[in-house]
Amino acid sequence: MAAAIATSQPDDEHIPETDSANFENEGPLPTAPGAEEPSADGQQREVLENEDALKALQFTGDSPAHSRQSDMPDTAKMKRDEFVMDTNNSSIVSKRSVEKLYYANEPEYFRYFVSKLKRRSPLINRGYWLRMKAVEYTVTRFLAEKTAKRKVVVNLGCGHDPLPFLYLGKHPDLCGNTTFVDVDYPKLMQNKLGIIEKTEQLRALLPKLTRTNAETGLLGSSDPYVAIGADLYNLDTLKRILDDHLRIKDASVAILFVAEVSLAYMEKEATQRILEWAASLSDVRFCLLEQHLPDGADHPFAQTMLAHFEKLRTPLHAIGTIADMKQRFADAGWPDAGIDIRSLWDMWSDPTFLNAEQRRALDKVEPFDEWEEFALFASHYFLLLAERKGDQDWSQRPYRTSLAGSTSRLSLAPSFAGSGTESPVPNVPQEQPLQVPELPGSFVPRRFAAVVPATSEISESEAVGLLGGQGSQERLTDCDTYSRTEDLLPMTGPPMRSGVMCHTVTRLGGTSNCLLAGGRTSPDKAIADCWVRLDGMWRKSQSLPEGRYRHCAVPLRLPTEPRPAHTALLFGGKASDGHVLDEWLLWMGEGGWRRVHVVGDAPPARFGAAMITDSREGVSGVLVGGMTSAGRVLTDFWHWSLEADMSLYCRNVTQRATAVLRSNAAILGRFGAQLVRTNRGILMVGGICGGRMLTSQDEILNMKTLRTHPVSGRRPLFVGTSITDVDGGLIVLGGGATCFSFGTYWTRPSILTDSPQASLNCGWHLLSTQKADLSMAPPIDAAERPAAPSHVPVAASATNGHGANELRLSDPVQVPRRSLAQGIDFERYVEDGKPVVFSQGDIGPCTEMWSNQYLTEAIGWDRKVVVHASQKHQMDFQNKNFNYITQDFGAFLEGCERGEQLYLRAVSRNAPADQPTNLADDYPEIAADFELPGELIHVVENLHSSPLRISGPVAMWLHYDVMANVLIQVRGRKRLYLYPPSDISHLGFAPGASSSSLDVFNPADPTTRHALTNTHPYEALLDPGDILFIPPMWVHTAAPTESMSVAVNIFFRSLQPPSYAAGRDVYGNRDLAPYERGRKDLARIVKSFDDLPPDVAGFYLERLGQELLDQARVITRSSQLHTVYAELS
């Protein structure tokens, strides 16, 4: 097609030169009698995805004349059968690569079906890993169901996939009373049985394996395993064997059919007969994983995928939309409420399918940065789970809920189900449609490059450069010059010795000067080098503090004297070791890079975000999206401004933006998008979003109106593109993607416009491609020396060899301990207002009794509780990095015990929004097991609430409580950090907020360390039976030191009643009445200066503020809330 140049070979950027260099040699496969021997070199055909297409061919073997089948001549069919036998192992080779890399230290079963290990590229590995995980997830859930019924797992089109052995060998506890059935092309199944018979490790899992003498039909069986060679175009054979041998029609049998990329290649009518037959059984589930078209057949990835299978002469007969496939199951007799279908990309972001630590663990196996390509692949594959039971109450749908369990999952409205696309709700207001006509002439394929401004002001509107990026064979160092004329000198890049991608080039003011910063070669080799072009000449500049890529950078114009300074502001990115950065850096010319201190809310660490200034020469702007270290696309929206004191004020404005977008809000948060300024306002173009794929209807978002510009006509692929405004509109340069194993799609240079004739009228074209003069390059040892990392290990101290420039944090003071056995005056400790740990007190038998089993039996497994489910080790209330989910109490406890990051803070059972919780009222079943020592009677006399707290390995956010409280540790151990009230201004609390986003347990990032340098931390380690007194306004956070923690927290009033605000205070942290009144008074004071000139108003407000701080210091000193006091600077 004219829209792209497609190649059949996948990008092999990360494939080692020898594909098995890092692995041991594996012996040849044992071969069944009469089966074809592998070729002498053991090589397999190099088509990665052919096996999925060719699985369909397994089902077109000899069949009775009355069966429905294609009219293919016998000779052609025999040739295709030979092709099937020759390429069958490709899929298993890819899965073997995944097994070796991603399932280290586990029993290996794919290896017995692969003659030689071949390491696939990271993209192929991760794609197959996700496919394998989705099927494993479904099969495991089925096998774990508690039922007295006999279970049968039927794998349709199994190939050499060792699914039965994965469970019989790795999870025998799940396989009781279960039979695994492999169904595939007869010759292939004969060969598979031959391998099993000759492999002791496989044969040992199948006691009394018996082979028949049949060439088709039932080929072999043992207690847990049945092998069937059958043609699915004729179901009679398969039905008869399953009925006679396994009696699957009996109501005492539960069946799971698994079809992983096998039915899509059959004729739709034949597939429908399979679905109808399966739906006729009494207790059945169907797991289907295959391709679909989320944005129609003209999407570039879909074009490449469909063309690939057409080339193989195995078209995808059954492919359609998710809605199409769900309807096909409904038409076959499956109840609509029992059908759940989701794309693999949707499942990737679902914490009930994969938690954050599981996703992070993948990056430790091999470096990975093909996120856009991975999202495209996963968006074009779905997992469908259908369930049909005669006695099932579909209002409950327990099995379906397990697949759809994420509360953060994007819900796609059904109103467009029949449209053939998964595009957003159609009634969302849209702007004028845009077209993307191609520029005439040739182009150089490259993606993840960077736009370079013209080399002189004269040619500013006549030329633009495109530097570096990933080319068709390697990363590039050269620079394209696109121009409207023919008489310009070509542009070149800096004399870099190796190609670079995912870097930034920032224009410095209205001149041709610009700054190149960072980038990468491979994903584990981030670059710290910076180059500045002044008056057309490139020279080396001060390196970044640490190499990074996929950061974002914008130009700033600082109002300095005697003339403004043009500089660049840089944020985020990813480092060589995989950690994600959250630091802001300002380029200071010869002075190098300066870290910028953030005031207000600080955006969490991210890479791949988009950033732009509000105006061309401004000092404020927006930051949108990006990705976390766990591979989750962020959906937040930030506004920032550089203040006169060179600090950066950041404000989270996500709520305002999402209120406008409403149900379409997911398209705001993107990874790898471009923000570009136009006469229509700022446009956000391309990238990927979480949960679903962007479509032609919503890929371009107008940030001014928050409405989308649909793309009409030809579809480009806005991945890895570079977009800039030129005379004539927006020019789109570079871009493309490796479309899994189907080929590579390259986006041609285009003009983004509302005029279809724009590309012909504007005159832009590729003028030249020029390499830099390497004779001007710095010496290798200077240019390629890696920069030292700027982050500091959490456990390191300033005395352990760190340089003088590292920020030293104060060692925490241990909270004093007092024994209740010796008698105490608790009210005196309350008056002192300092934390203390009380030990050796009697809190009842709860410390011995409150095991998970006891709590489940006493409270009830199915008691519904609302818990926090976090994707990070520390919850953040300000940024809501957790979800509120409702779980069965028993399931919640099991999740905590497994190490899931769950947290229960009990609320009132009858009126959670109106009344504080009380252990005796809300959990009467266990309240008698707990008691408060008599020495703490003051707590009971002034009781506010007594929440039960149970958590897995997750930390509470940093916060303060207005009411005093005691934390009684019942089970497990817990660490707390506490800070005196005078530290509040250093701990990142926004006005009116009682919580902060600082992670004081892991102060590795410079922003957090800077904030903590002037604080005075206390540390408490609680054992079961310990009681910690936390005075009001003491900032604190807590985290279990073991996998699970159970505690009771009792809040009580320690101040005079008039001090507390009137009205509801469910959690005991509503600010005191004087503070609430004071904030209102402050607003009135500020407003009273409205009529004065800003400089006069600012003068007096700063004086009033200083007076207020002085009074605060006097009061704080006299209160003696803590021993060590640091005066506010």
TrEMBL record:
It catalyses: 7-[(3S)-3-amino-3-carboxypropyl]wyosine(37) in tRNA(Phe) + S-adenosyl-L-methionine = 7-[(3S)-(3-amino-3-methoxycarbonyl)propyl]wyosine(37) in tRNA(Phe) + S-adenosyl-L-homocysteine; 7-[(3S)-(3-amino-3-methoxycarbonyl)propyl]wyosine(37) in tRNA(Phe) + S-adenosyl-L-methionine + CO2 = wybutosine(37) in tRNA(Phe) + S-adenosyl-L-homocysteine + 2 H(+). Residues 43-54, 68-82 have a biased composition (Basic and acidic residues). GO terms for biological process: tRNA methylation; wybutosine biosynthetic process. The keyword S-adenosyl-L-methionine applies. Its EC number is 2.1.1.290, 2.3.1.231. It comes from Salinomyces thailandicus. SUPFAM superfamilies: Clavaminate synthase-like, Kelch motif, S-adenosyl-L-methionine-dependent methyltransferases. This is tRNA wybutosine-synthesizing protein 4. PROSITE patterns: JMJC. GO terms for molecular function: tRNA methyltransferase activity. Probable S-adenosyl-L-methionine-dependent methyltransferase that acts as a component of the wybutosine biosynthesis pathway. Wybutosine is a hyper modified guanosine with a tricyclic base found at the 3'-position adjacent to the anticodon of eukaryotic phenylalanine tRNA. May methylate the carboxyl group of leucine residues to form alpha-leucine ester residues. Belongs to the methyltransferase superfamily. LCMT family. Pathway: tRNA modification; wybutosine-tRNA(Phe) biosynthesis. Residues 1-82 are annotated as: Disordered. It is an enzyme of class 2 (transferase). Transmembrane segments: none annotated. It comes from the Eukaryota. The lineage of its organism: Eukaryota, Fungi, Dikarya, Ascomycota, Pezizomycotina. Keywords: Methyltransferase, S-adenosyl-L-methionine, Transferase, tRNA processing. Residues 921-1067 form the JmjC domain. SMART domains: JmjC.
